[in-house]
Amino acid sequence: MKLRIAITTLLALVLMSQAKAQDNLDITGYVRNYTGVLTGGDNDFSIVQNTLNLKFEKSSDRIAFKVNPYLHHYFDRDLELGLREAFLDLRFDHFDIRVGKQQIIYGKAEGVFITDAVSPKDLKEFLLPDFDEIRMGITAAKVNYYFGNSTIEAVWAPVFTPTQMPEMNSIWRPAMPFPMAPTYDYSTEEITPSLENSEVFIRFSNMGSAADFEIVGGYFWDDDPTMHITKQINPITMQLTGLTVRPEHHRLTMGGASFSTPLGPTLVKAEGGYYSGKHFQTETPTIPDATIEKNYLHYMVGLEYSLAGVMLSAQFIQENILDYEEGIRNDEIESTMTFLAKKSFLREKLWLELFAYVGLNNEDALIRPKVSYGFADGFDIQLGANIFVGDKGRFGQYNANDMIYTKLKYSF
Amino acid sequence: MKTRTLTLLIMAFVVSAFASHSVAQLTGQQIIEKVYTNPSGDDTQGNLSMTLTNNRGEQRVRNLKQYIKDDGKVEKKIMYFLTPADVRNTSFMNWSYADGQSDNQWIYLPALKRVRRISSDSKSDYFMGSDFTYDDLGDRHPNQDSHKLLREETIDGKECYVVESTPKEEGYMYSKTITWVMKDNYLGVKREFYDDRDRLLKVLTIVDFAKVDGFWTILKTEMHNVQRDHTTTMEFTDVQKNKGIPNSRFTERSMTLGN
Asked: Which of A39, A306, A375, B215 is the one with CA 20 to 30 A from B128?
């Protein structure tokens, strides 16, 4: 299998380089080594990954295409070959049509997903990879209509792509607080590709001197499956004898908006989305499958400011479950903050960055300091750490996964 | 007869000298306004090659394609980064306003796949690691500074006005600039930038300029940071003027789809 992937890749490279020679095909990409080691326990390697990422692009006035294959090699896993994007563009005077696998990003928030519900997430390594690697491409047809500084975008995705979760034995597998090892029933997890099961999104955006804003809406599947739980109880002893977990994706309807505007030297951003049809886990014993449907709000306000050459940014995010009921496992209101400080030195050869998520409900955090140095044009050396604070919550649950890492990346 | 002729000649000389002196009596404000309003065409497009040289002589090169359009009220500029590979397909757009309103700036990073508005206060940041700040690259409105004509002098055979400009706002990155403005075409040929302690920080020199499509155009400049001894050379090629760049060039679509 590995041999076949390698041969296919080589063959593709040869064909593409022939095409490049003949027809001005644009080939770019990068080669990267990413090595991370856990700072606790036995200092296990959390990741040793070698990546070849290629982008083949060609465009003219009316047509364009892009294919972005990638190859990940791990010391402890199978070779992974994938397509991040592969699409065709048709360009007209006032509108474009893009068909194929593509990443589609909504909203103004950084590092959090408020109305950004189109491209599902690859969470195999939690939120640690670069954001273009976290967001997966979806197979879709997208139409953009332009007038003045405004755009109307419509997306139709005939094939549902769920969130990519970590493997069962991965250190990034989120905590599942079951009282005993469950049996999984995957019979309802699959969404059959059909017209009825399509996803649709629409976006209106405007860019102007006073502000940029965006209004979005969508009717789609929840990328994260709801875990419907059936308990088997011995009628005599009333003891729990078994648990069956049945993952199922449910339909969501979302409407939202975002804007960013300069206020003197400060950039003010806000984004909010109303989600209808979300299923939450509940511990209320009278509810048979331990799930309950509720609507919720997800919103953010943020500021960006430059001080003495340091780019500073802060965001305050809340998820608010409406018509909340006791027993729901999530808090009624969950608050998170993000902070970013970034500065360059040596004429942008050296960058220092500190990014942090802080969970206010559970007093947990993920702190991500990073130093990167441009050793030569296109060659970047990065040294960073991921420090998890707290013992529960979205970030605290990984407190045994503190790590330091290096990334060596050559872009061409 | 000879005496009369001589008297007339002397009178003519005095009058012409007076006339020429009165032309020279432009104020610093007027000279900088002439620089600012120097016709540069309604739009400009071309390639920009930027060479960064450090104090050890090591060089890094950045290549961009840029489009500029000015309707008298707003100057819109969009830049597409071509090399190096790690910034390829990044685009940057700036809208600068004649009434002195703060600039609007956006950046498109292909990895993030969306256009982000950025804080225009970053005008004091250095552009792509060069010795030019974002503000150095824009047209600073004459009313943002107080201007004083210091003297007239000739450099490299060009007769120039020497004008000192002091910012009206407090805390601006430069305490003052001194500009050498060519008398014959009102192009700035040299500018010295002084830091907040009034020490010489950078010297901008116009290395090459020419008339392109009927407009005086700077084709090559060099910014030397004298305190750190590094230099940035900007060279403009394939420059074209008044080709009717459409407004749609300066939109989200254009930033996203590239040049």
From this structure: B215
